[in-house]
Amino acid sequence: MGIEERKEREKERRRQQIMVAAKRVFSDKGFAKTTMEDISKESELSTGTLYLYFKNKEELFASLSFRILQYLLIRLEHVSKEPEMGPEEKIRALKDALYDVYDFDPLIIINMFHLQSSETLMNLSPKILDEMKDMSRKSIGEMAKIFQEGIDQGIFIDAHPLALADSLWSMFSGLVLWEESKRIINPKKDFLKSTLSLAFDVFARGIKKS
User: Fold this and answer.
1) Spelled out in words, what is the top-level CATH class assigned to the domain 1-54?
2) Which of 55, 63, 71, 82 could make an S-S bridge to 59, C-beta 3.0–4.6 Å?
C-alpha cells in the first residue's frame, strides 16, 4: 500500500469516525440543539479537525442523510420496476416502501425533512447541495413513473405525474413531522403507520378515474 493510499484510507476512517459521533449526538440532542463542539467532544477530535472534513453541522447532517436517500431510491426503484404489479398495486407498495424508509432510521429522516424545509440548505456547499438535489430528483422521478403508467393505462386522472409524485411526497413528509410533533407531547401516541395507511387510501381513491 502506497503512502497516498494510506492517507486516503486514514482520511476516510476519520470522516466515518466523525459521522458516527455526529449521529449519536444528533440522536441524543436533536439537530437544532447540536453544535460542532458537541460532536467534537463525542468524536474525541478537535473542532478544527471537524471543519477540515465538514463545512458546518448542516453539511455533516446532510452527509448522514445520503444513506437514507440512497435507501429511499433503492426501494422506489424496486416498486416502480416490479413487472408483476399494476399501477394501483404499486401505489399500495409505495406506502410500505416509504414507511420502511422511515423505519430504517426515524431520527435521520425526521431531521432531513426539517433540513429540507428550512433556510439551512443555503449553508451547504454547492457540491453537497447538488448531490442531495440529484438524489431527491431521482426518487421523485421513480414515483412519477408509477403515476405515468397509471395515466397511460387510463386508470389515474390526467395530471402531471411529477405533480402527483410531489403531492405524495409532501403528504408523507408532512405526516411524519406531524406525528412526531404529537409524540413529543405524548410518547405513547405512535399512529404514523395507521395514519399513513389511511392517507394513502384517500390519495389513491382521489387520483383514480371514476
Assistant:
1) mainly alpha
2) 55
Are 1-54 and 56-207 equal in CATH topology?
A: no
| Count of other CB atoms within 10 angstroms of residue 173 | 19
Would you state the CATH architecture of domain 56-207?
Orthogonal Bundle (1.10)
Residue 107 Cα distances to 1, 54, 65, 139, 180, angstroms: 38, 20, 10, 20, 10
Neighbours of 77 (CB within 10 A): 16
Domain boundaries, the chain: 1-54, 56-207
CB distance 84 to 56 below 8 Å:
no
Residue 176 CA to residue 104 CA, distance in Å, equals 13
- pLDDT tens series, the chain, 210 aa: 677 788 888 888 999 999 999 989 988 887 888 999 999 999 999 999 999 999 888 888 888 888 888 999 999 999 999 999 999 999 999 999 999 999 988 888 887 887 776 666 777 778 888 888 899 999 999 999 999 999 999 999 999 999 999 999 999 999 998 888 887 777 777 788 899 999 999 999 999 987
**All three cell numbers of 134:** 440529484
Residue recorded with cell 440543539:
33
- Of 101, 107, 105, which is closest to residue 74 (Cα–Cα)? 101
- Return d(Cα 14, Cα 17) in angstroms, integer: 5
Cα-Cα-Cα-Cα dihedral sign, residues 152, 157, 163, 167: negative
